[in-house]
Amino acid sequence: MQIEDWPSAKTTPALYRELKELDLLEHIAELEAFGYTVLPPDTVGPPEQHEAVKQAVLSLVSKRKGCAPEDLEALFSESQELFRFVLWDNPIFEKLVLNPAALGLIQWMGGTDCILSLCNAWIKGKGSARTSVHADWAQFDMPSMAVETYGANFNYVLTDYSKEDGGLAFVPGSHRWRRLPAIEEVEHWNENAVAVEANAGSMVIWGDHTWHGSYPKNTEGLRIMVLGMYNRAHMQTQEAYKETATAEALARNPLRFTRLMNTYHAFPWGKNGADYKRIMKGPQGYLSLFDTQPSGDRVRERPEYDYHTYDQSVGEAVKASMSGKPVNFIDHYKGRPGRAGTRKS
Ligand SMILES: O=C(O)CCC(=O)C(=O)O
Predict the structure, then answer these.
(1) Which atom of ligand 1 is nearest to the CA of 168?
(2) What does pLDDT average to over the chain?
(3) CA distances from 318 to 54, 241, 323, 335 (A)
(4) What's the helix, strand, coil split of the chain in %, to 5?
(5) pLDDT of the residue at 334
(6) CA–CA distance, 141 with 298 (Å, rounded to integer)
(7) pLDDT (average), residues 126-130
(8) In 5, 154, 269, 282, which residue has its Cα 20 to 30 A from 126's Cα atom?
(9) Using an 8 Å Cβ cutoff, are 217 and 166 in contact?
């Protein structure tokens, strides 16, 4: 059928067209049916990219650990470690979180305005270390999951993955159960989850409903991976991107990067409510997966706000705007002229 920009479907037609252009529709079907999918290396990027990201990981890990790359294998014997907040360690990671195939499928699950929550490197050595089966759903106080995913993940596999290699493993179809596993289920699925078979350079993609973990690594060498976790835009991120994204980092990347950093979001606010004037200047509408144009001076880092001072002129604008006319609150916090916060600078 002809896919048109039907307003009722919001940004889905635009995303669907781009996913079709990338030949990813079968991957959407796998996500819907089984809760995860694997992108082959040539869909993710050229071999030089896989090698460059692997070298970037080895370099940052040896720097953080204070040892030579050759010593890492011995260091990670019988162990694994997540290296947090690597986005700013090397600009190569900025490009990675915008990877069109991965971001496209993640947007399918988390919305076209989803934001970056985590960018980590993960090293695992030979031995008994493993990750128990869990779901990435981080609303631990909510006993059941919403129909929609709140987050989605890519694991960029920089060494070959199999059960013997200590790779990821999934409980296919578990995304439909919409709950976290009980300890007895963790014990069962730790030994029965289906291991991913994937060559270095692949990306494994899934939403935060799907149960997954990893097996112990029985082969020589390190298992090396980079992950990106994305959340819905209203959520608190696990890592501090809104707070640390500089004007330079935003300027050198396309507009979708600014949205990933969430520097134009309404939350949090103080006595003057949301800074709608600024929100309206931020990236609007659907942002193409193929856009690589640097944003330049079209975007700015999040200003420092004075949350405590009430500005009467802002208050009057709020009064005038709350006239009793019907308001569409679904899009309300994405931008509405007429109100402004008080910026310190
Ligand atoms: O590779 C692993 O050990 C687990 C990965 C994982 O749980 C994740 O990325 O959410």
Answers:
(1) 1
(2) 94
(3) 51, 30, 9, 14
(4) 35, 15, 45
(5) 63
(6) 39
(7) 97
(8) 154
(9) yes
- C-beta 227 within 6 A of ligand 1: yes
C-beta of residue 174 within 8 angstroms of C-beta of residue 128? no
Range of the domain at 317: 246-332
Does residue 227 lie within any of the structural domains? Answer: yes
195 touches 162 (CB < 8 A): yes
* Cα pseudo-dihedral 113, 119, 125, 128, rounded to 10: -60
pTM: 0.94
| Token code pair at residue 58 | 């080895």
Predicted local distance difference test score (pLDDT) of residue 74: 97
Ligand 1 centroid–CA 251 distance in Å is 32
- Looking at 66-99, list the stretches that DSSP marks H as alpha helix, in order from N- to C-terminal side: 72-75, 91-96
Query: 154 C-alpha vs ligand 1 centroid, how far in Å?
Result: 10
pLDDT at 328 over 80: no
Same domain, 191 and 254: no
Co-location of 257 and 137 in the same domain? no
Indicate whether residue 155 lines ligand 1 (CB < 6 A). Answer: yes
